[in-house]
Design brief:
alpha/beta; Enolase-like, domain 1; TIM Barrel; 2 domains; nine-stranded mixed sheet; 13 helices; 17 strands; globular; binds 2-succinylbenzoate; binds magnesium ion
Amino acid sequence: MKIKKITLHKVEIPMITSFTTSFGTVTRKPTAIVKVETADGITGYGEAAALPFPYYKPETTDICLLVLEKYIAPLVLNKNFATVEELMKMLVSVKGNNFAKTGLETAVWMALAVKENKSLKELLGGTRAKISVGESIGIHPTVEATLAEIQLRLDQGFQRTKIKIKPGWDINLVQAIREKFGDIDLQIDANSAYTLDDMEILKQLDQFNLTMMEQPLADDDIIDHSILQKQVKTPICLDESIHSAEDARRALYIGACKIINIKPGRVGGLWESKKIHDLCQKNGVGVWCGGMLETGIGRAFNIAVASLPDYIYPADMSPVNFFYADDLVKDSFSVDKEGFVIVPTQPGLGFEIDKNKLEKYTVQNKVLS
Ligand code: OSB
Ligand code: MG
């Protein structure tokens, strides 16, 4: 395969609700859509789903677009490669910038799926016909508002509840949830809002029998996570700290977590996601697919990768219309009454790109060849 043209779209679909975590509130979510066109006439689309600000990871949407244009596209345009692994080898000189890499990488996965007339699931080696999903519930102004959203999502079928926490918005909230909803599948995500000085609070959370606590400590610190994991019973799940299969190997080696949230965007794509998956599977560690509030394009790749066998915990997979006024694909996925999303089996992305919508919500684009 040879890419002869890359189009970078900065896309912004209006949000119908904001999303608050310990690091801040997302009220606007511009995203980067990467279109690749190959020498043999195949088109693929991918998504670099970074946030607009550097509060989750250093990369922002604008940084993704800049790095794709100036550093990534020149390394791959008009070069031959046979596999995604070969494609990614061409990018080794670019450090980090995993969201940007994922934008290109996922577009190539789609192009390969089209070329080989296979579904993404088949290409990746996925085994599930449908994936279990949960909902990630942001920080609300009140406990009552949080309980109301949990009720709504449980009624809709979501299999597990994840709530965002931060110091002062933790024990009382979890207690209120347990009182109202009993033994539901419940997990928490702190997005690095705590330190080891908060040990007492983090230990108190053990009494609530949580499925996991996601990224309690700093994004660049697996050492403190391993200290914490020795003192708490709740399994720690790492999100921000894991950028690669090598990071995952080190984290597991020192006991920094018992579960990994694999987001394709954060680790540089589906190939690296699969490597982390394989490593975890070999070590008896379960994984799940997190999300970055992707559009229907990015979500399509998340669904496919979550069909791999070691994705044993429900994915963060709220439908696109929970957050956005519109979508870039026609007939996006939905969550059924039992909390499952069907994994597409048709060739290519599995969803039809709505080119008019892509045009409509593109605020800036650049063609590279
Ligand atoms: O930490 O998992 C996170 C969204 C943006 C940034 C970080 C996170 C999240 C979510 C939303 O929790 C998950 C989704 O895409 O539905
Ligand atoms: Mg997280």
